[in-house]
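Reader question, answered in our methods column.
A reader sent in the components of a multi-part assembly and asked whether the whole thing could be modeled at once rather than chain by chain. We filled in our standard form and ran it. Here is what they sent:
COMPLEX SIZE: two components
ENTRIES:
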Amino acid sequence: MSDQVGYDDVEVGTELAAVSYPATRLSLVKYCGASGDFNVIHWNERIAKSVGLPDVIAHGMFTMAQAGRFVTDWAGPKATVVDFGVRFSSPVVVPDDDVGASITVSGQVEEKLDGNRVALALTTRSRDTKVLTRARAVVRLP
Amino acid sequence: MAINPDFLGKTFPAGPPYEISRVKLAEFADAIGDPNPVYRDRSAAVEAGFPDVIAPPTFPIVVSMASSARALADPALNLNYAMVVHGEQRFSYVRPLHAGDVVTAQVTISDIRDVGLNSTMTTITRISTVAGEHVCTAYSTLVERGGAA
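And here is the structure of the entire assembly that came back:
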């Protein structure tokens, strides 16, 4: 977790350094249980392939959660997220090995808004493919 | 066969109240791999200015899905869940959810359309406390691959 960011310290255009987060089969099983989303394509390779997917894929919401973590880690504990939206452009394929997949998030301060709010544009990739597009978060900073 | 367009505009009754517990928030934070103490340590959350441990930003999907699952399970909607992938998701927050909140989620199907060979369905889920305080609105677009084929 990072230190607290203050609204007055933020400059438009500032790049937020990339962070990579792991996604393994175990991650997906845990996410199934915690979220209640047991869609078979997130844990059953046989059925995932039978419906035309390359392999088991991560829940879109698991990927979005990693982007959310990137935002809250940057913004600090006293910030609140006021808006957060993404488009799922490509699945995160999670192979059945000891490594799994990696989700890499980076960002840029896009805009400073009234009410101490800051808009961030996020870039999220796995295997060099953009897995989220139009990913944007608005946070309220102290 | 495509998603049944008769469901466009339909609002489903809010399900039973969902009580947000510290244990559930810690479990969810563990599942997304986020060690942030504001999700599991009450004193850290209070120090940050919240009444209790808060929910990670994507947690409202759990509340939203619990309600939308009932709607999506209606065979008349004709949604083939194995062919469903998530297209878009957005949350607009009034404040973070926190442990102790008791909320309900009201789901409205705001859009059903065919995009090429796929069908998409957009839902708007309004999450409010049982006392009537609006806390978060979730916008979800699901894609049924091949649904319009």
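What stands out: The first helix of chain A runs from residue 25 to 35. Residues 7-22+60-140 of chain A form a domain with the Thiol Ester Dehydrase; Chain A fold (CATH 3.10.129.10).
Send us your own complexes using the same form.
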